[in-house]
Amino acid sequence: MLEAIATIARYTQNPKDRAALSCHAEMIQRDRCEGVSEELDKKDIEKRYQAVLKAPEIASGDRFVNRHPSI
Question: Which residue has the higher pLDDT, 60 or 14?
Fold first, then answer.
């Protein structure tokens, strides 16, 4: 799922959409790390999460415009 978010982010122009993608990536990372007991799996999830954050479209800072765009 995190790979899909990173891919979608490359084609996302709207800052609110970018914020939504970032928010979902954070939720996935947080939920999966809490529910995963294997350390290697946790590291893999963190690696994929960091890849999302490094996507230029997400890393531009727009992800903090509106952390919950549906509100």
Answer: 14
- Specify whether the CB–CB gap between 4 and 51 falls below 8 A: no
Residue 69 resides in a domain: no
Give the residue from 5, 2, 32 showing the smallest Cα distance to 18: 5
Number of domains making up the chain: 1
Q: Which residues span the domain enclosing 40?
A: 2-64
**pLDDT tens for each residue of 39-70:** 888 888 888 888 888 876 676 654 444 444 44
Residue 9 falls inside a structural domain: yes
